[in-house]
Amino acid sequence: MIQVLIVDDEPKLREGLRSFIDWEAHGYCVVDTASNGNEALEKYQQLRPGLVIADIRMPGMDGLQLIGRLRELDPSLHILILSGYADFEYAKKAIQQRADGYLLKPVDEDELIGYLDTIKSQIDQASQAEQWRLTTREWGRESFIISLMMEHPGDPELLWSRAEELGLAWRSYQVLLLSTVLDEEDYGEKLAAVRNTMTRLLEAKGRGYVFSHHSQIGVLLNDPILPVEWSELYSNIRHVVEGLGIDFSLALGPKVCKIEEVAYSYGVANRLNKNHFFLGNDKLLTEELLVEQTHDGGVSVHELDEQIYYAVEIGNHELVKQLIEQKGTCYISQGLTEEQIKLHFAEMLTALLGRGIKQSPELQQRNREFSEYLSDIYKAWTLGELYEKAQQFLKQMMNELGSKACSKHQEVKMMLELIHRNFNENLKLETLSGILNYNSAYLGKLFKNETGEYFNTYLDKVRIEKAKSLLEEGLKVYQVAERVGYTNVDYFHSKFRKYVGTSPSAYRKTSNS
């Protein structure tokens, strides 16, 4: 049975969850409850449960702080978060701290059971994988091979003597390394199937010996794999591994001539696999790919975010795709890590969704669906997969916003809609011209011909009309300026007087007298 600790400051909810479902029928046992974060930490250290269900908002230590402390004690602990209302910011932070799920109160029975079944499956898989790994720890050829992967494997003479005993005294060495993830169903069986494939393709042909190290399957080769063999070898391994439903990367370290240099070949292969997110998983990764590439950062990240949002609003799927990839390239040029890129993309999508909710509040009803999309961002195996997940998120936004593709006869209409919906943003003709794929001078002329006004003049007039309404409601001048898109109050004064003929404060006084 998997032990469960329930943490909530509401006694009725704590006790209610105890009897909410038949825990034992799903492989669980509620061992205790806690009323706050500090008590939860104390009981966790005593009981070491496999699952903690905690409220996101509690006096003293809140749920997010509790997750952080628990993660320090056990990075693999499973955690479900409870919340009294939908909160995208908290959901995002919970996802970043690897919470298994985000449940809204009152808790839905089917949703809770779904999470429990998933978590139990993951715990069972991890247990199987760990048991399988332990069986390979006996001393022998494989254990010696694994020891060679260490940065300082030992005295070269002793290593060579041991290699001779085990039939590993070769003229050259090379490491082929397959790396995969740990959260697949029936992981132990699938990893064994991958190992059998490597054995059949290489070890059985006298090319070297297969070894297993955590989530890696490798081959210590006694003869280098030639470039003409790379494609066929990769295809054969990929056919089996992808058939098992496992994400993987396959890397080849450089050839070395001394047994004490095996660690170097392994280190390069391991580094390649760790960089699979950037290098892709459609080929055998080799040392040549580690040559740093320079990327032109181009447009700023903030400006890209603006363009992406406007592209979503007008329903330009192809442009969204291009801008997403351009944003990724910009992050690469800044030297960001995989984790940082995923975090920045999640933050961007959350911010864009927040803007979308302001336009269409009904988007709030799709809280769980968008939270799952954000979770998928962190699970992306490669940069290309991350792009796909981000595009799916924004495509769903476009569907909900009812966006329509832009045609040649509605550019001005699209511009007018964007102005009236986003007059408080830093709208620029240059930005919209990029979104609509037109030269800014041509688009400005087209706008003038259709509306009789220059773009900036029209935008100012829309802002001033909205400002008049807000002043009539009694808002202060600086508040109105900020709400309609003017960051400089003096500039707002001059624009208001130009179009209304009086100052904002005088207009406010007159309209409220």
Automatic annotation (TrEMBL):
Gene3D superfamilies given in the database record: 3.40.50.2300, Homeodomain-like
UniProt record, GO biological process: phosphorelay signal transduction system
Domain HTH araC/xylS-type: start-end pairs: 413-510
Pfam name, any one: Response_reg
Record-level GO cellular component terms: cytoplasm
Stored InterPro entries: CheY-like_superfamily, Homeodomain-like_sf, HptR, HTH_AraC, HTH_AraC-typ_CS, Sig_transdc_resp-reg_receiver, Tscrpt_reg_AraC-type_HTH
Intracellular or extracellular location(s): Cytoplasm
Positions carrying 4-aspartylphosphate: D55
Domain of life, source organism: Bacteria
Record key words, sorted: Cytoplasm, DNA-binding, Phosphoprotein, Transcription, Transcription regulation, Two-component regulatory system
Main localization of the protein described in the UniProt heading: cytoplasm
Record has Cell membrane as a keyword: no
Domain called Response regulatory: residue spans: 3-120
Molecular function terms from GO: DNA-binding transcription factor activity; sequence-specific DNA binding
Protein name according to UniProt: DNA-binding response regulator
Lineage: Bacteria, Bacillati, Bacillota, Bacilli, Bacillales
